Amino acid sequence: xxxxxxxxxxxxxxxxxxxxxxxxxxxxxxxxxxxxxxxxxxxxxxxxxxxxxxxxxxxxxxxxxxxxxxxxxxxxxxxxxxxxxxxxxxxxxxxxxxxxxxxxxxxxxxxxxxxxxxxxxxxxxxxxxxxxxxxxxxxxxxxxxxxxxxxxxxxxxxxxxxxxxxxxxxxxxxxxxxxxxxxxxxxxxxxxxxxxxxxxxxxxxxxxxxxxxxxxxxxxxxxxxxxxxxxxxxxx
Length: 236
Description:
Number of domains: 1
Order of helices and strands: EHEEHEHEHEHHE
CATH class: Alpha Beta
CATH superfamily: NAD(P)-binding Rossmann-like Domain
CATH architecture: 3-Layer(aba) Sandwich
Shape: globular
Helix content: 25-40%
Number of helices: 6
Strand order of the largest sheet: 3-2-1-4-5-6-7
Structural class: alpha/beta
Radius of gyration: 17 Å
Number of strands: 7
């Protein structure tokens, strides 16, 4: 198979933002490696679906290895997989802590490490991660220390990696969303969630896709945490 086409790896790709990103990259001529626990085999030969738990330390390196074996290159990694648990701090359970650390932090670390190693050999690449605006704008209506702990760690790692690899052709950025209409949020919660944003409504998956694609094309941008949050990070 020719390796002339660019290749994007997208985690959490079976629904919501991840599924929308798969379509968006395909529309722009990329081949896509889509991974999640529940990913289904695709009909499109330009999509390689790999099922697996991103929190398992073996999954990320396996995804990158299979991407290179199938398509011969790796241009972009989108760390979209993540979980969100809202709870008063003292009510968090050990199981919730472990799940958030596993998916959000370990999931980011292991696949990004394997991807950056491959990109460094190529002399080019882009990593973009999906975090949350709550890192910068805590909200007493949505107590969520585990989101701040894990996604805040990714924001910090984004800046650190951007500087470490700035002269090696690898850009590293993040998109920091507000609350986006996805299957994660039931219809009856939308009015409450909309009111949390200064603009008065939730975001759409297309808003996050547009932000990721902006960063994809913005060759002079690295180390950026791009807020797509309806004004949340600016204040209320």
